[in-house]
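Your task:
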Amino acid sequence: MAGELQAAIKLIFNKGNSRARTSPLLEALKYIDVTGETAISGRMSVGLTAETIPKGDIGTIGTVILWNHDTTNFIAAGDDADNPTIKLFADGVGLNFSLVAWGATNVSVKADTAACEMDYILVEV
């Protein structure tokens, strides 16, 4: 089967005289083929030391969605959270979620100052 994963992104900025928005082509629903058969979602408390998101029976992670619920602290994420490729800023402070193509076996996360609640979805490649 094709198009098992579906995603759409819409971003609008409007402040003062500055305006920007995503292209309607980006906002349209995208269908992504997935060869694996496993996905997992959950919520976890991310602490101050690097930890791996539980992935169940997923072999290689193809797509990752992360959402930081903390209002003060950010979360670093990557193959190695001590050298992050993503920063999830505090809710209300900056970009507190991320949807990325991954292609690795694990996702490591670490909070900066205090533990943070984070939702995640991992989809097998």
In short: The chain has two domains: 1-33, 36-124. The CA atoms of residues 77 and 86 lie 5 Å apart. The mean pLDDT is 86. The helical segments are 24-27.
